[in-house]
Structure formats: C-alpha cells, structure tokens
Write a structure and sequence with these properties.
The protein has about 170 residues and is of the alpha+beta class. The chain has 2 domains: about 30 residues; about 110 residues, Immunoglobulin-like. It is built from 2 helices and 8 strands. It has an 8-stranded mixed β-sheet with strand order 1-3-6-5-4-7-8-2, with no helix packed on it. Helix 1 runs antiparallel to helix 2.
C-alpha cells in the first residue's frame, strides 16, 4: 500500500476541523491517493538487453564526381549504402534492428528504417539502401540498435558517411 495512506486520515481530519467543504476534502483525498509511487508488477531487473557488435557499412565516403553519372544530378547524388551488423540477445528474441542516418547540418532530417536478418546467417542483420542525398559537402552519422521482445534496447553501433560534391 502507498506510504501516503498513513497520513491521509490526519490531513482529512485537519481539513474537516478547519471547516473546508466536503467536496474539497474528497478532491484532496483523491489527489493524495493518485500520487502513490508504488506500481504493482515492477520491471524484472534480471533481463538483459540485446548487444550490437561488428557494425560494418560501405561506402564510408562518396565523391559525387566519381559516381556513375546516371546517379548524379546537379543537386543530388544517389548512393548504394550497405549496412551489416551482428546482434545477440541471450534471454529474448530480437523484435527489430533499426538504422538511422542523420545529417550533421540538419539533425531533424533523419532517415530511418529496419535491417532484416540475413538469410543463412543467424544473428546477422543487413540492408542495401538506395539513398539519394544532397550534392553537398556533408557528414552523416549512421546508427544501428536493436530492440528485443522485452522492449529492451541495445547499445548503439556508430559510423559516418562523408559526401563530397565533386565537380558539377
């Protein structure tokens, strides 16, 4: 039971003796009861989160001047980005493995998605992403993390992709 229950009777008694209306006394009692800080079924602290390891990606840099001309416009460059990581969870199944690509110049313009388990390679997740980016000198932060069926989140694998505009 909530530790506040012990003092509720005292508070209500003092309000009542002070001539406070019954409605106000009931409202105070309800607010004190809802302020209880104990919740039944607290989290199981023995559960372990998943672990991301060996995050690998390619390319780590792109110069628009060296990319196939069919994948470059005056303002954009399209990159075939490949992401690969190992994920392990000793006490749960992996629910999803997430990637994010965040431009340093506009962190709210994040691209995200999920990696799929690689066929025939248990615990290895990957994706090939056809990524169209602005043709500008920019640095992108790559992140991967996993979430298991217990809703625990793994560590984060980090990387960087550098885009150079090349000569138009």
């Amino acid at each position: 039971m909530c530790s506040l229950l012990v003092s509720i009777a005292d508070v209500l008694d003092s309000f009542w003796k002070a001539g406070v209306s019954t409605l106000l006394v009931v409202a105070v009692a309800i607010s004190m009861l809802t302020a209880c800080d104990q919740v039944p079924g607290s989290a199981d602290r023995s559960l372990q989160p998943p672990v991301v390891a060996d995050f690998d990606y390619s390319p780590d840099s792109v110069d628009a001047g060296t990319v196939d001309p069919s994948r470059v416009t005056d303002t954009t460059v399209t990159v075939d980005l490949r992401l690969l990581t190992a994920v392990e969870d000793t006490d749960s199944d992996i629910e999803r493995v997430v990637f994010t690509i965040e431009p340093g110049s506009a962190p709210r313009a994040t691209i995200d998605g999920t990696l799929s388990e690689v066929s025939g390679q248990e615990g290895v997740y990957g994706a090939a992403i056809d990524l169209t980016l602005p043709r500008a000198d920019a640095l992108y932060t790559l992140r991967v993390f996993a979430v298991d069926t217990d809703s625990l989140t793994s560590n984060v694998g980090l990387g960087q992709l550098r885009v150079l505009p090349g000569t138009p």
